[in-house]
Automatic annotation (TrEMBL), chain A:
<comment type="similarity">
    <text>Belongs to the EMC2 family.</text>
</comment>
<keyword id="KW-0472">Membrane</keyword>
<comment type="function">
    <text>Part of the endoplasmic reticulum membrane protein complex (EMC) that enables the energy-independent insertion into endoplasmic reticulum membranes of newly synthesized membrane proteins.</text>
</comment>
<dbReference type="GO" id="GO:0072546">
    <property type="term" value="C:EMC complex"/>
</dbReference>
<feature type="repeat" description="TPR">
    <location>
        <begin position="174"/>
        <end position="207"/>
    </location>
</feature>
<dbReference type="InterPro" id="IPR039856">
    <property type="entry name" value="EMC2-like"/>
</dbReference>
<dbReference type="InterPro" id="IPR055217">
    <property type="entry name" value="TPR_EMC2"/>
</dbReference>
<keyword id="KW-0677">Repeat</keyword>
<keyword id="KW-0802">TPR repeat</keyword>
UniProtKB/TrEMBL annotation, chain B:
<dbReference type="InterPro" id="IPR008568">
    <property type="entry name" value="EMC3"/>
</dbReference>
<keyword id="KW-0812">Transmembrane</keyword>
<dbReference type="Pfam" id="PF01956">
    <property type="entry name" value="EMC3_TMCO1"/>
</dbReference>
<feature type="transmembrane region" description="Helical">
    <location>
        <begin position="14"/>
        <end position="32"/>
    </location>
</feature>
<comment type="similarity">
    <text>Belongs to the EMC3 family.</text>
</comment>
<feature type="transmembrane region" description="Helical">
    <location>
        <begin position="123"/>
        <end position="143"/>
    </location>
</feature>
<keyword id="KW-0472">Membrane</keyword>
<keyword id="KW-1133">Transmembrane helix</keyword>
<dbReference type="GO" id="GO:0072546">
    <property type="term" value="C:EMC complex"/>
</dbReference>
Length: 310, 255
């Protein structure tokens, strides 16, 4: 799972060694196997590479015997990679081999569904997923795949529903909540998105990107209270990232300006301190000066416009 | 202590080494047996939901300060409402341990499988050791030890005058039982680490294995109480000052 440097280096060496063999039969069984094994282990998605060096492995009868129990993992890996490269025939072949060996397995059902997806048989694929879910409602693999399938059809409402069904069971899955938040943003249902981001915040409070995304949603919702909240969460993102999150810096300036514009002439409540937005402006200008001087005049003009509102 | 006891080399060849060897082989056998008996483990949605909701409530309790007060109160109500709260509901539904086993035969079967592969070999080897080798002094530790170690190293030998550095065969068994764990992870862990990632992921997803076990009702009650007692202290009011300091520091470093 974790990517280790020495494994990456080994992989690069193997790929170099294998590159003259691409698409040709025969040669260097061990290197091929090791290459695929490393890719599996690190969960890297180099599908072209897998298909190039893997398809000979599964087609060569003598080699499939030599692979032993690893064979089934290789079949699955090559099948999924072949879906990426559009080689549906190869995918079907490998998928069938695994399906014969492990009927009723979750991973096989997932692969069958993905094959149908690749042929744009959306309804068939969804039927496969639904049937599997009826049999084993606790299968997170199939739940997630179903959401992904609905999403890739552009059916965001359906994806949100499916993801809600998943999260009803797997409530503590922060990545799931994050995905749902992003779907709700696309659907412009910002209140729901905010709820989801809160859920991610409590499980990953040290991730500055979550604070920022939550602030974005609050800012989008609008209203003085939400602007104030947004400013606080942008500040949190800045604090956690040590001032390195440019979007959060902009966010502070923007939300401060929005608060000022909304409370103009209305002296209710204490006035907000202007130290933070002004500091943010200074840091932003410094950043642009250092990394992108060409844009500095435009940035300065925009920021000064915002500062004038404060 | 008068003269040292000389241990026959045959004891080494026929007691010390065989015990270690047998225990190692049994460990390997057990590993493959569990693998063979293991069924593709997919939890019941109900049990997953239970353990995951506890986990979610725990997250909420630990990091309540990171979300606004209204959001926190809303969630607490969702978990703890006296009639409709999720934890309260699940506590009501949680069956006691006996009923659960009666209802779900696979529960019992799984437990049997675990017991078979763990308890059986262990009790068999222990019986074997204590039948054949009880009372043996099997080894000598090359450094002196205090009297405290007597119960650990000389199990099965009731001799007050024997030097503590001598190890009895039964104690050797126990030392092996715990000491071989590292060897197993070296020998068996490396070889199949590649294909276990999927399973590890799944185990992580499942939270605390397959559900809360027999004490589910208690766990729900404890979580409800803890959540009820949680004070919401919003962390963010001070965050702006902290952020200001951070930005000032950034400016200082840059200039």
């Amino acid at each position: 799972m974790a990517i280790r440097l020495h494994e990456l280096q080994e992989l690069d060496k193997l790929e170099e060694r294998l590159s003259p063999l691409a698409g040709k039969p025969g040669g260097d069984f061990d290197a091929r196997v090791q290459c695929l094994r490393l890719l599996r282990r690190m969960r890297l998605r180099r599908s072209e590479c897998v298909v190039m060096y893997g398809q000979e492995l599964v087609k060569n009868k003598a080699w499939t015997r030599r692979l032993g129990t690893q064979l089934w993992d290789v079949y699955e890996q090559v099948a999924l990679a072949a879906l990426d490269t559009g080689d549906l025939e190869l995918a079907q072949e490998c998928g069938n081999a695994v399906a014969r060996k492990f009927p009723g397995s979750q991973r096989v059902a997932k692969m069958a569904g993905m094959l149908l997806e690749a042929q744009e048989e959306w309804e068939e694929a969804d039927r496969v997923y639904k049937e599997t879910l009826e049999e084993t409602p606790g299968s997170h693999l199939i739940h997630k795949r179903r959401v992904a399938a609905l999403k890739s059809q552009g059916n965001l409402t359906g994806a949100a529903e499916a993801l809600n069904a998943y999260l009803d069971i797997f409530q503590a899955d922060a990545e799931g909540w994050r995905e749902l938040a992003e779907i709700y943003i696309k659907l412009q249902q910002y209140r729901q998105a905010a709820y989801c981001y809160e859920e991610v915040l409590v499980s990953q409070p040290q991730n500055s990107l979550i604070h920022m995304a939550y602030a974005d949603v609050l800012y989008t919702l609008g209203g003085v209270d939400n602007f104030r909240l947004a400013r606080k969460y942008y500040a949190a993102a800045v604090e956690i990232s040590g001032g390195g999150n440019v979007r959060a810096l902009y966010g502070i300036v923007q939300s401060a300006a929005a608060i000022a514009a909304a409370t103009k002439g209305n002296k209710r409540g204490e006035p907000e301190s202007t130290d933070l937005p002004l500091l943010a402006v200074d840091v932003l200008k410094k950043e642009y000066q250092q990394h992108c001087p060409a844009l500095l005049p435009i940035v300065t003009r925009t920021l000064d416009g915002q500062v004038a509102l404060l | 202590m008068g003269a040292d006891i000389i241990l026959d080399t045959q004891i080494r060849d026929w007691v010390l080494v065989p015990i270690t060897l047998v225990m190692f082989l049994i460990g390997v056998l057990r590993h493959y047996m569990t693998k063979a008996l293991q069924s593709e483990k997919i939890g019941e949605p109900k049990t997953i939901r239970e353990s995951q909701s506890i986990m979610r409530a725990r997250f909420l309790r630990a990091n309540a300060g990171y979300i606004p007060a209204t959001s926190f109160r809303m969630r607490r109500a969702y978990f703890n409402n006296k009639e409709t709260g999720l934890l309260v509901q699940q506590k009501k539904d949680a069956p006691n341990a006996g009923a659960q086993m009666m209802q779900d035969p696979s529960f019992a079967v799984n437990m049997m499988k675990n017991n078979l592969s763990y308890m059986l070999p262990q009790s068999l080897t222990f019986a074997w050791i204590s039948f054949f080798f009880s009372g043996f002094v099997a080894a000598k530790i090359p450094f002196p030890l205090t009297q405290r170690f007597r119960s650990m190293l000389q199990r099965g030998i009731e001799l007050g005058s024997l030097d503590v550095t001598y190890v009895s065969s039964q104690s050797w068994y126990f030392l092996n039982l715990f000491g071989l764990r590292g060897v197993f992870s070296l020998v068996l862990g490396e070889g199949n680490a590649g294909d276990d990632t999927q399973k590890m992921m799944q185990a992580q997803m499942m939270g605390m294995g397959g559900g809360l076990g027999p004490d589910a009702a208690k766990a729900f009650q404890a979580e409800t109480d803890a959540l009820e007692l949680t004070q919401h202290e919003w962390i963010l009011p001070q965050i702006e000052q902290h952020a200001e300091e951070t930005l000032r520091r950034v400016l200082r470093e840059r200039s």
